[in-house]
Design goal:
The chain has two helices and 19 strands. By secondary structure, the chain is mainly β. It has a single domain, classed as Beta Barrel (Porin). Strands 3-5-6-7-8-9-10-11-12-13-14-15-16-17-18-19 form a 16-stranded antiparallel β-barrel. A hairpin with a 2-residue loop joins strand 9 and strand 10. The longest helix has 21 residues. The chain is globular, with a radius of gyration of 22 Å.
């Protein structure tokens, strides 16, 4: 099916849903005088007496100290404030029509890649979602793409407060503008989306687009997208997921391992994951592959992560191994990470400390870690305090 037909069908479906959303406007709901019009409910809120409009305010802040020793670049020693966000959510005209507006005001997310850690102000999420039923929903705007599990888990809900290398770098195309059809049917969660393929806050100046889908089957419980078994679940939560997307936007050069001037307009991304939580133990594993259609390269990657609460719901230790097998010689990347977290108020208020051993196979052969590799070795120490309300 051509993209023009997909867009036409999406537009028609949107018009139908819009009609359904506002068809009941004449029969306005009765005023519930017992319901508070303002207060705190997992966020500060104000709402109309007839419940047609609601606005909720949340905030997220990460304060971190970080020290990095790097062979091929100067060492870093700094205090940072990444991911400082005001989050506006709510509904308008009907409780079925929800929205999110989330500007990003913290440091840029470049701690793995460059020396530049500068302040930014840009729009992270801006979308509205209409839920005809739990099974059939449609989202429009700029949003996180449901690709790999690691990349789709928001940073405040992570065990290390930061994405692994497999969710950054060329694998890190995580948010874009477009339309997403999604929902939950029994134990199955699904997404099917069409986006620009150029990334967030960018206009598409190409005729190419990004098309993808993700499905998750919750074998036991409802796993969701938070890391660590904070609930100390008595029963297991077990889920398996898979994703595939194709991007032929020739203005997005994310399949070339940052090779200057080497454009690769067409690439596909596939991932499969499994996740388990029970009695303070959490395990996540994910396999990904980035395929370059221009030269036929396959770039597989894997991440395995585990955590355990030594004190239920409060103190957790965790470990993670990530590796990217770039198609070319002597340029693979590895990350070995260990950390400890103390949760004062779950993921909303927590203190985390981590150490990461990073290996890039393009450095000094004398420091080779793996046989035959030219390894560049980096160390990263991080202390992070997360606060949200």
């Amino acid at each position: 099916m051509k993209l023009s037909k997909i867009v036409l069908i999406s537009s028609a479906f949107l018009l139908i849903l819009s009609r359904l959303a506002f068809a009941s406007e004449e029969a306005k709901p009765a005023v519930d005088e017992a319901k508070p019009l303002s207060g705190y409910d997992s966020g500060f809120f104000i709402q109309s007496a007839d419940n047609q409009f609601k606005l909720k305010l949340n905030a997220n802040l990460q304060m971190r100290y970080e020290y990095q020793t790097r062979e091929a670049a100067r060492d870093n020693n700094y205090f940072g404030i990444p991911r400082s966000r005001l989050i506006f959510t709510g509904h308008a005209y009907t409780s079925k029509l929800t929205y999110m507006i989330m500007p990003e005001m913290g440091d840029s997310d470049t701690t793995h890649a460059t020396d530049d850690v500068s302040a930014n102000l840009y729009m992270r999420d801006l979308w509205f979602n209409y839920a005809a039923t739990e099974k059939i929903q449609i989202k429009l705007g700029q949003f996180f793409l449901p690709r790999s599990r690691q990349a789709y888990t928001i940073s405040p809900a992570q065990q290390f407060g930061e994405y692994p290398i497999t969710a950054l770098n060329d694998f890190g195309f995580t948010w874009d503008r477009g339309i997403d059809f999604h929902g939950s049917i029994a134990k199955l969660d699904y997404d099917a989306y069409v986006t620009n393929g150029s990334g967030g806050n960018l206009i598409n100046v190409s005729k190419g687009m990004n098309v993808g889908t993700r499905v998750v089957y919750n074998i036991f419980g409802k796993y969701g997208y938070t890391e660590g078994d904070l609930e100390n679940s008595e029963d297991p939560n077990l889920a398996v997921g898979a994703h595939f997307s194709f991007n032929n936007n020739d203005n997005f050069n994310n399949a070339t391992n940052n090779t200057a001037g080497d454009q690769s307009p067409d690439y596909s991304f596939a991932s499969a994951d499994v996740a388990l939580k029970q009695k303070g133990l959490s395990l996540e594993g994910e396999f990904m592959n980035l395929h370059n259609h221009e030269n036929g390269d396959n770039n597989p990657a894997v991440t395995v992560q585990a955590g355990y609460f030594l004190i239920p719901k409060k103190w957790e230790v965790a470990a993670e191994i990530s590796r990217i097998f770039w198609d070319d010689a002597d340029n693979d990347e590895s990350e070995y990470q260990a950390g400890s977290s103390y949760y004062f108020k779950g993921h909303k208020v927590k203190l985390q400390g981590t150490y990461a051993f990073l290996v890039d196979e393009n450095g000094n052969p004398a420091n080779a870690v793996f046989a035959g590799d030219n390894s560049q070795i980096n160390h990263r120490f991080r202390l992070l305090f997360g606060f949200a309300f």
